[in-house]
Amino acid sequence: MGARLDPLTLGIFVALFGGVTILGFVASRWRKGDLSDIAEWGLGGRRFGTLITWFLLGGDLYTAYTFVAVPAAMFGAGALGFFAVPYTILVYPILFAVFPRMWAAAHARGCVTAADLVRVQTGSGILALAIAATGIVATMPYIALQLVGMEVVLAGLGIGGEWPLIIAFALLAAFTYTSGLRAPAMIAVVKDLLIYVTVIAAVIVIPSELGGYAKIFASVSPAKLILSQGTARNFGQESAYVTQALGSALALLLYPHAMTGVLSASNARVIRRNAVVLPAYSFALGLIALLGFMAVAANVKAMPAYAAGFKAFGPNFAVPALFLQMFPSWFVGVAFAAIAIGALVPAAIMSIACANLFTRNIYREFLHKDCGLKRESDVAKFVSLVVKLGALFFILLVPQQYAIQLQLLGGIWIIQTLPAVFIGLYTRWLHPYALLAGWAAGLAAGSHMAASLGFKSSIYALHAFGWTLPCYAALSSVILNVGISVVLSVIFNALWARPVTGEMAAAG
Amino acid sequence: MAEQRRRRAFRPIQLLLGLPFIAVICVPFYNRVGPELLGIPFFYWYQLLWIPLGAALLYPVYRSGRGEL
To answer: Which residues neighbour A238 within 8 Å (Cβ) at sequence distance 6 or greater?
Structure first.
């Protein structure tokens, strides 16, 4: 912001960003497939091995917004922001246990999306529609937030105005259109390497300049250093922390972009192996979270040079300000490019995932039943453009606060697909209409909790028998959802015999 | 049929997958400053330590279940 604009920083940033853009277009020729087939365009032909899947999922799940928002939460709220770490500790056992099964079921039936799988497993197009719509609506604000990540580093570079964001997004839209999932898979390799270099440099250089970790933690106010302990009848921040970790872990894997990343693996063992090796990223994320405290110790907020940035972006400006303060200008270019490229990978995968959902579970299911492969892939490509354009307009025209609030709601919404998607892998006993009722109740309850908190927080305190349990609204509402799905299944299964589809007969 | 499938699918070693959940859920245990490690409070290094530990627990489960879904 303001007068800085260092030519060396800018030059390195533009060179790296331009390089990966070219890579995005070249990717269409990589492991060449027929890109007019949706499984080729939208899942990379399901041919990614362990290494590419590692880069792709790493680039997909650890988004630019994560790199900006997690340290920002530490900078602003302290220990509570560290929930991102237990959250990533819990993601991998879940990935390991559930997703190889999901991959096998999807592969056997040619499913491209989670809603496809629900469609064949329950025989209900309406339930699949609910799953698909939830996925699209929950992902859109997430794409918009990737733009926020990009906006923050552009401001840090000293580039104002909206045009750089528009150019970056136009490039993203173009290479996603031509190369499909191959583009983010290839770019993810560069992105991840840049992120690792930045993180390693940051955790070595910055603490030594600030006088060591002991000094960094000493600069954090004691109230923010650990969670406030609960009282006899109130679990306090401790239950908020752990429910947010668990709920976020479950929600993350239900997001369409996670599903797309996982389904593009070449076999189920690739997923298992990745569950073992992906935690390397979690460790990087844990270190990135600590950057928030380093920003506190460096006292960047009090420096006049960064006042405008903090005014525009709040705590989200903590990491860019810290890098500008601590790194030589050429390395600031590398670090900022890492974050901006970090926005491209998930934004591309998210838009592809939304496009797959719309095409397979809305367009082909309800609008154009006898649509061929070529048409299917054309629609998906077009929808990926529309989705990104929507996100761009959203960020340019609507106050940023709304995107953040919608993303918060998105987590509460997407977790409501858990009973249909995850439990459906293990049993066909849950009745599709019971699942639909549970989904609706979970959505309503979760949204109500968030609304009662003014959409500012998703930690809703539950009161029972004189106890107070602050709980992540996504977790409490999905428990309600599962409960309703089970109870109504007992009733519905007793009342009506379900039509047995070919699929179900084969499975029974 | 269902019985048989369940018996084949479940192996006690899979219980290892539950350990990270136990480690994370006992918040009052790790929500403290001391003992510090290299100046890092217990709250932080305990949770950072569980990242590689969680991965290390997955590995034997992966080895024991190759070729199985």
So the answer is: A227, A229, A230, B27, B28, B31
